[in-house]
Amino acid sequence: MARELYTARLDRKDCISEPAQCFHFEFALEGLEAFPFKAGQFVSAVARDQNGKQQTRAYSIASASNGNHFDLCVNRVENGFFSNHLADLPDLPIGGTIQVHGPHGYFTLHEPVTDSIFIATGTGVAPMRAYTQWLFPAAGPDRSQGKDIWLIYGTRYETDVYYQEEFEALAARQPNFHYLVTLSRPKPDWTGLRGHVQEYLARIVEERASRLGQTLPVPPPDPSIPPADLHFDIYAYICGLNNMVAAVRDLLTNYGWHRKQIVFERYD
User: Fold this and answer.
1) Structure pTM?
2) C-alpha count within 13 angstroms, C-beta hemisphere, residue 72
3) Domain for residue 242, yes or no?
4) Helix, strand, coil shares, percent, the chain, to 5
5) Are residues 55 and 157 in the same domain?
6) How far apart are CA 124 and CA 119, in angstroms?
7) Residue 150 and residue 210 in one domain
8) Nearest Cα to 23, choosing from 106, 92, 96?
9) Is residue 148 domain-shared with residue 182, that is, in the same domain?
10) What are 179-232's pLDDT values in tens digits?
11) N or C terminus: which one in the chain shows less Cβ crowding within 10 Å?
């Protein structure tokens, strides 16, 4: 069955990292008053390449649902058709349009909200930005219910930390939101965290368990409970390249976490 295509008009385009060639895009869907979606879902963009072949790319939505608007965070890929089509001014100027369908996907927050750890690298931060906007809206009630929310963001260089000011401002005004940035290839003058996300994830899990009087690894759930009925007091949401996702899943599994506690999306 053919999917309904919407026309998305580009309202804003910013290069948020020149070295990484990462772009932030803001779109509005023409002819629609609202485009409801769950934080963490994605849209598929559709266009024809220079040979007339239809190309489709899936992009995580980098914002919470807001009228007929949605944001994307995309790294330009050398010789990549779609990222160049979006990033190049002649192809997509302000006011230009693309075709999209969606929303799609199940990389969404479990409800009711629990303590949650968001782990991201690169443009994997896009759905995490959507989560935080939904949990802590600029206007409207706080949906976090006072639960501890951690965002661990890992990248190579300081120039590749996307949306840093936004997350730092959120952490400054929301005491239950904790923002950690770690660099794997920092310059000597970098004063922040160094290394990979797994190291800081381990600290969070162990410190939280100690505070709650839990012993790691945690015991497995009651086998009489059907998997669909399992509920946990904390979840991890992981988005990034496959090697990182696999390493984080292994780490959490070794702590006794159930696979249903570990929600992930990988983009390679």
Assistant:
1) 0.96
2) 28
3) yes
4) 25, 30, 45
5) no
6) 8
7) yes
8) 92
9) yes
10) 999 999 999 999 999 999 999 999 999 999 999 999 999 999 999 999 889 999
11) N
Asked if the structure places residue 47 within a domain, the reply is yes
Q: What are phi and psi of 158, to 5 degrees?
A: -60, -30
Query: Cα separation of 92 and 13, whole Å?
Result: 9
- Sheet of 262-266, strands arranged across: 193-194, 177-183, 149-155, 115-121, 234-240, 262-266
Q: Which two tokens stand for residue 76?
A: 């330009």
Which of 85, 104, 123 is the last residue before a domain boundary?
104
Measured in whole angstroms, how far is the alpha carbon of residue 43 from the centre of its chain? Answer: 13
Q: Are 204 and 118 in contact (CB under 8 A)?
A: no
As given in the structure block, the two tokens for residue 193 are 């965290």
Same domain, 161 and 256: yes
Sign of the four-CA dihedral 196, 150, 255, 257: negative
Residue ending a domain, choose from 53, 75, 104: 104
pLDDT digits (tens, 9 = 90+) for 102-129: 999 999 999 999 999 999 999 999 999 9
Cα 7 off chain centre by:
24
Domain of 257, in residue numbers? 115-266
Q: Are residues 123 and 71 in the same domain?
A: no
Tell whether the model's pLDDT for residue 85 goes beyond 60: yes
Q: Hey, is 205 helix, strand or coil?
A: helix
Specify if 109 maps to a domain. Answer: no
Give the CATH number, domain containing residue 173.
3.40.50.80
Secondary structure of residue 51 in the 3-state scheme: coil
Tokens read off for 143: 């949906």
DSSP-derived 3-state class of residue 165: helix
The rounded distance, in Å, linking the Cα atoms of 78 and 130 is: 27
